Amino acid sequence: SAIGDIDGLLAEYMAEIAVVDPNALDADDALAHWINVYNAGALGLAARADREGSDSVLRIPGAFSSPIVTVADEPLSLDGIEHGKIRRFGDPRIHGALVCGSVSCPTLRAEPFVGAALDAQLDDQLRAFLSGGGAVLDDDHLTLSRVFQWYGSDFVRPHRMPTVVPAPRRATAAAITPWLPESTAERVATGVVTVGFAPYDWGLRCSVA
């Protein structure tokens, strides 16, 4: 399958990543680098699941907790990269950019993230995630991706990232309105919309925008 054909390319990319010191980069370049590292690792995880005939990355032991790459001599897991590196930059838009090889995750961008274009890339990714099923308005009920239940506080209180304190549903919906489709954002602004979260589908998938 397409997922399973990328092992060689990923191995080369991971080798290149290992010699880059993110601490020597400016903030935008460093964040772009970490997002690329995470997505490459997640893509590798999806390729492994596909190769082993698994229907979900969650069937891989230690999928997110076991080290998958070494960056600047530091062994890192996907959880370590996301929570220990990426979220510490204080930009909640990363949640539209990080993929996990699953049906409900954002779509993999067809180009690498780069510091010079990062602001526009992150805006574009989050808008695409929300308009592509991450936020569905049905009458006066807004159903959000489970990502916004897990990480709503990152949008409501980005200066406190990373935090594990949950955010109220309405506060989360209000915080993401700049990236919602205009008609949905206008409805949310009325304050009459109820907010819920969709079940997360961990079925194996990796699509490219």
Features:
209 residues; mainly alpha; two-stranded antiparallel sheet; 8 helices; 5 strands
Give the percentage of residues in beta strands: 5-15%
Query: Mind telling me the C-alpha Rg?
Result: 17 Å
Order of helices and strands: HHEEHHEEHHHHE
Task: Trace the largest sheet across and list its strands.
Answer: 3-4-5
Calculate the mean pLDDT score and round it: 93
Give the helix level as a range of percent: 40-55%
* Total individual domains: 1
How many strand units? 5
- What's the shape? globular
Spans where pLDDT lies below 50 across 5 or more residues: none
What topology emerges from the helices and strands here?
Elements: H1 7-18, H2 27-51, E1 69-71, E2 74-76, H3 78-84, H4 118-134, E3 135-138, E4 141-144, H5 147-150, H6 152-156, H7 169-175, H8 182-189, E5 194-197
Parallel strand pairs: 4-5
Antiparallel strand pairs: 1-2, 3-4
Helix pairs in contact: 1-2
Describe this structure in words.
The protein is mainly α. The protein has one domain. Helices cover 41% and strands 9% of the residues. It contains eight helices and five strands, in the order H-H-E-E-H-H-E-E-H-H-H-H-E. The chain has a three-stranded mixed beta sheet with strand order 3-4-5. Strand 3 and strand 4 (141-144) form a beta hairpin. It is globular, with a radius of gyration of 17 Å. The mean pLDDT is 93.
